[in-house]
Write the structure tokens for this entry.
Amino acid sequence: MPLGLVALAIGAFGIGLTEFVIMGLLPEVAADFRVSEAAAGWLISGYALAVVVGALVLTAATTRLPRKPVLLGLVVLFIAGNVLTAIAEDYSLAMIGRILAALCHGAFFGIGSVVAASLVAPEKKAGAIAIMFTGLTAANVLGVPFGTFLGQQLGWRATFWAISVIGVLAFIGIAALVPVLRSPEERISIRGELQAFRSGQVWLSLLVTVLAYGGMFGAFTYIAYTLTEVSGFASTTVPWLLVLFGAGLVVGNWLGGRLADRSIDGTLVVFIAALVVILALFGLLAGSPIATIVALFLMGGFGFGTVPGLQSRIMNYAGTAPTLASGANIGAFNVGNALGAWAGGVGIAAGLGYTSPIWIGATITAVALVVMIIAAAAARGSHASTAMSADGAGGPSARATATATTH
């Protein structure tokens, strides 16, 4: 395994910790700033929306620049945002810090995915992306529970100081281990990158990402309240329950990456369908501690198991200009985050209870499944047409070439 993938995973660990740890600390943050649960949730939604801006604007602005220096600059921005959050004296300043940290998120994962894929053979791209995203899953298994525990014991600000230190370690790792890549792709213009968005499959992939990830995130954003107010767990057990969710992320990411290298669309349809079922059962059985424990693990597994496939799919259909499309897909993940967090907050604010985000998430994910089935069917139709054209034009050799190109 290329050591550069390890460095990228370290960066992903820090960024994932920043994104997710605040969910376990949401009650403490809300109490400190004297705001409502829904208002505190905007520290999550605001982060997600800023990721979208960073994914598009920063990725586009740095398209013609060497990728390694860009990654290092993004980590510096990440560190600055977390330091500002840690010292924030009011809600507004904390939001600014969250936004600064978020701006690097989309561009880092977008550019990092392209770099990760370039470090391995073409048939191993999804697996390489999964390795980078292992840092994100590890953040949930190790970082989020520990960060939540640290925040509960020493105050939530201590968690963001710890994240800042991780950012420094990530900077060192990327500087030392990620090679300087010099390829023709780095000289592609913005106009060339935008050509990827002429593909209908790129847009369908983005929509699936928004809805599939938004459904899971809608259920997960207010999970601390669901666990304590519905399932009956003590607040001190929340960090350890999040370990189960994180373990599901690790297994799902690994399995999803391996299966997507065999069949991207097939893997996505199965995983999204399973997620719909899990969320519906979770909504029904959230009052049962045992059912909740099982649902947390499976929700993380099937939810995050879609990530390598979704990222690989859009890069495949983007062709020779994957950087901006890759960044846009990271932005789409976070549009989903914002959608899910907002929708879940609406359910709670409407008095529908702390299981309402789960039901809302199940509904959003069901729509994602429909869109994914349509996208997969359209892709099969396109491949079949290409194969028939190749058969008429050049026989078996041309048909084989067409199949390899559209795989």
User: Anything to note?
Assistant: The chain has 16 helices and no strands. Residues 356-406 form the longest helix (51 residues). Confidence is low (pLDDT under 50) at residues 395-407.
